[in-house]
Amino acid sequence: MKVIKVAGLTAVAYLSKLLVSLFIIKEISTIHGPAGLGLLGNFMTLVSLASTLAGGGMLSGMITYLGESLGRPTQQQRFITSAFIYTIFFACIPLGVGVCGIGGLTELIFFNQTYRVFIYFFLIAQVLIALNNYVFGVVIGLGKNSVYTLFLLIGNMFALIISYFAIHRYGLWGAIVAIMAPTVLPIIPALFYACKQRWIQAIQLSSLVEDTRFLAKFTFMRFFSVLCFPLVEILVTNQIKSVLGIESAGYWQAVMKLSLAYMTFFSMFLTFYFLPRLSTLRDKKQISHEVKQMSYLIGAAFVVMFAVFMCFKVWIIQTILSEQFLPMADWIGLQMIGDLFRVVGWIMSFVAVSKAATKWYLLGEAFQGLLFMLLTTVSLFYFHDVQSVIGSYVMTCCLYCLFSVIIFISYVNRQPRRYGEVQIDHAT
């Protein structure tokens, strides 16, 4: 029953976020076309990175720790305080670094210094996103998934209203505001709730060093994952712009954003149900059983989704984007095959995250990021089309999935001694 309840809450939260995100993409696509989406695609990816990395990327660490320390409120209170200090510290670092390197960051994202003000806006907004992630980590770690769902529903309601007026009245600047809105605006109910709960009643530094070391492992893993795939996505977009032009980059971004629409649900479900579940398990047979069950569940969901997309792909593109994006219709099936292998790889890698097995997680992220960049460079050189880039993505996901399966099998069959794993057993 718990998995059904969590899946239902995740679906409600995700559905609200999905509808707002699709509305924003639809409006931008209709008003600005493939060229506009190509221009803004990297900024969308940057915002997506901030949603997971802002504040140190400690969301998975907080969920893991609080899940494992249920029934020990004093220990949880100390950790919540430490996590707040950690979040503030790591929210200020990108703000300072970003301001100092604003020129290079603007060039990377927009290829043009004209849009520098958009980066300043993002650097300020990522502080609010970091606070969002902190509150999300606490409520999910304490098992209050319904509260998290409420945050998203309220935030997305505000985002929908603001996005509509911003896009239609303020052009490109309005599009930037709309892209940021769904990620930033849950801060309104989140901070209100956090203040009422009084989590930070008094600064407790007794376990700050120990908690920081624990969270740093998850920060390192998140930061590395950002460098090894999402950043590669930005570089690939820039490559496509250089070789094929901005409209081709817009088609590529449309495929990736459509993919992100359903991949976000699987990511949210794995983070909010599967990760806390794994964190409570110690027996490898139980872990293996959970992984197999989740793989079957995800596989079945993808089969149904694939059938729906293949039957209605033209209608989906016209509804979510516009008729200008119909040339990408033949690429959707290929993209979904890659996404399936990538999600199965995620399931295996979540075992590494839940056990803080940093080495294996980093190897997997480095493997897929470098491989995707290499295959894309080769495919663009020889074939000069977007479909070859998507083919490179599929091949990367297949090999990443195989890599993750091999690592998982080696973990399950390994002797009881646990190299590179963290055991949380602080004294209460």
Could you walk me through the main structural features you see in this protein, from its secondary elements to its overall organization?
The chain has 428 residues and is mainly alpha-helical. The chain has one domain (2-413). Helix content is 84%, strand content 0%. It is built from 14 helices and no strands. It has helices at residues 2-53, 59-68, 73-100, 102-110, 116-141, 145-184, 187-197, 208-228, 230-244, 246-279, 284-320, 332-354, 358-383, 386-413. The longest helix has 52 residues, at 2-53. The two termini are 31 Å apart. Residues 417-428 have low confidence and may be disordered.
Please outline the helices and strands:
Blueprint lengths: L1 H52 L5 H10 L4 H28 L1 H9 L5 H26 L3 H40 L2 H11 L10 H21 L1 H15 L1 H34 L4 H37 L11 H23 L3 H26 L2 H28 L15
Helix pairs in contact: 1-5, 1-6, 1-9, 1-10, 2-5, 2-8, 2-10, 3-5, 3-8, 4-5, 5-6, 5-7, 6-7, 8-13, 9-10, 9-13, 10-11, 10-12, 11-12, 12-14, 13-14
